[in-house]
Request: fold
Amino acid sequence: GDSVTQMEGPVTLSEEAFLTINCTYTATGYPSLFWYVQYPGEGLQLLLKATKADDKGSNKGFEATYRKETTSFHLEKGSVQVSDSAVYFCALMNTGNQFYFGTGTSLTVIP
Amino acid sequence: EAGVAQSPRYKIIEKRQSVAFWCNPISGHATLYWYQQILGQGPKLLIQFQNNGVVDDSQLPKDRFSAERLKGVDSTLKIQPAKLEDSAVYLCASSSSGRPTDTQYFGPGTRLTVL
Reply:
């Protein structure tokens, strides 16, 4: 079946470090891909998305590119801040409009 | 614009008891989702409604879980009887039409503890 695999956490970085959180997916056809974020004490919210191959989603300095050839949608940010500390979830919506989430990666940014 | 509302926020029950959760989506949103998020895991879709019809309930344990959205607005998810492994956060989300280009908006969740 369709699924999303993301890198295990937790991840701890110093402020201004470069961030990569890996995400790969299994799905037939061309799913839509998403990154959601859950800040401490808050609900899930959409961070960025890409709905077709080679699209780049971006928001709040985060970017992810939909790579069909490697079935990947890695999340990157050039310089993280303490306020980026959260749990990040990669997700896909398949061609049947069914949603699948990864297990989440916890990020802690220390000053 | 008001967000997705859920109640209760917390619920503690004994195993074999029944429990119900309520969700009110964002006004005008046709698509409503219920997810189960077990501690340390990502959300798992239980059921998806388009207006008052079920689009997908393939991962809903139908022997004990049921959900309805009778008037195409708010929705209720019920567990009867509850098991220990049902302890989780139950998330409700809505989107305007369920297309990939639509954003899903999540409620704060109901944290269920089954003792």
